[in-house]
Amino acid sequence: MELLTVSGLRKQYGSHAAVNGLDFQIQTGRCVALLGPNGAGKTTTLRMLAGLLKPSSGQISWNEQVGHVRDPRQIIGYLPQMPVFYPWMSGQEFLNYVGQLANLSAKEAESRTADVLVQVGLKDAAKRKIGGYSGGMKQRLGLAQALVHRPKLLMMDEPVSALDPIGRREVLDLIQAIRQETTILFSTHVLHDAEEVCDDVLIMNKGQIAIKGDLNTVRKEYQSPV
Ligand code: ATP
């Protein structure tokens, strides 16, 4: 069953269409990669889905079982390409804070924080200041903040592009575990990332979807640029 249907989605900047008429669906429980070169329109697409950027035209509709969505941020977890943290906070303080921003009660935020810290492997670092975290730890904290309110859809913008091989492996393993319980959409430049964890692939180029389908279908038609 589809969780999300996107039709005719566009974002225009002056005379340039960053996203130029997207039509696709995301099925509940699937892990979907949004693949494409620099400037293809991946970030713009994710930001529109996350409710952070207003589309110029087109529609984003959620399955009726999700109910009326007033603010997509209630049901989406979003990890931006360069997440911003408060370095003077501990990981635990930060997640509690984000949980309460997502309308969890203080008690729920505390309990969800404890759960996600374990889930992303940061339990032992929970009380340390974020400023002292490594790049890989920050990426896992970014994932934790996107998961703290139990989103229906987890979206990540190039979650592994900036990581070294060990950090990349850790985050891909985490995605593999999270996908057992959450629908996922993440962007990447490289088909190889998608091949490791995804079911379906959307390939974007110049603001449009060039190829879409399950991994096997897409593998036959696409050569990764990197
Ligand atoms: P990358 O892999 O480099 O992050 P991307 O696929 O995420 O690329 P976008 O960041 O969505 O691509 O950008 C798509 C196009 O829209 C690019 O040509 C970009 O220059 C343009 N663009 C994005 N944001 C703006 C903006 N605020 N104003 C004008 N043009 C923009």
Automatic annotation (TrEMBL):
**Keyword Calcium appears in the UniProt entry:** no
**Source species, domain of life:** Bacteria
Which molecular function term from Gene Ontology is one that the record holds? ATP binding
| Family in the record | Belongs to the ABC transporter superfamily.
- Presence of keyword Nucleotide-binding: yes
- Relative to the complete UniProt sequence, the shown stretch is 1 to 226 of 305
Positions of transmembrane segments: none
What name has this protein been given in UniProt?
A: ABC transporter ATP-binding protein
Q: Which UniProt keywords apply?
A: ATP-binding, Nucleotide-binding, Transport
Biological source species: Paenibacillus albiflavus
